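Subject: Protein record for review, amino acid sequence with backbone structure tokens
Concerning: The relation between a protein's sequence and the shape of its backbone.
How to read it: Take the token row as a discrete description of the fold.
Enclosed: The protein record, placed directly beneath this head.
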Amino acid sequence: MNTFNQHLGEDALPGMGPEVSQAVRTPFLKDESWFLVKGVVIEKDSEDAGNVGKETTLRAGMILTRVEQGANAGKWVPADHADAEASGDVLHAVILKKDVNMLSKDGVTVKDQSAVGVWAGVIDEDAVNFVDAGYRDDVVAIMNLCHFEAAV
């Protein structure tokens, strides 16, 4: 049974569970009338170290890269994840469209989560979280359907 709601970007069954905060905020999209998205599965141990106190909630605008080898091949992770491809070896990247809570329904353990990633559009580079600045050039190069604009 597929429980992924592609309109809300949520993957959970109805009922009691932890508080889910998936805010619809896309501050990194400069033109919300044109962008393309794809569904991704985020590896359960992914964290947002910059989201102090809520590290298990990945914020919208975070760059995720696809794991190419190993047990988590095909899943998506932030650049600082243990399974992330090395800078220079990144083949696929997306920008997380909405906040995603990695906690399962028990509110304690983490689990793989489905989410929506932007792979084409006009992007405010200053609002994107590259996690590791060393990945910036690689990500911009492989996301050739994104136009990254930075403040001058």
About this structure: Residues 64 and 106 are 25 Å apart (CA to CA).
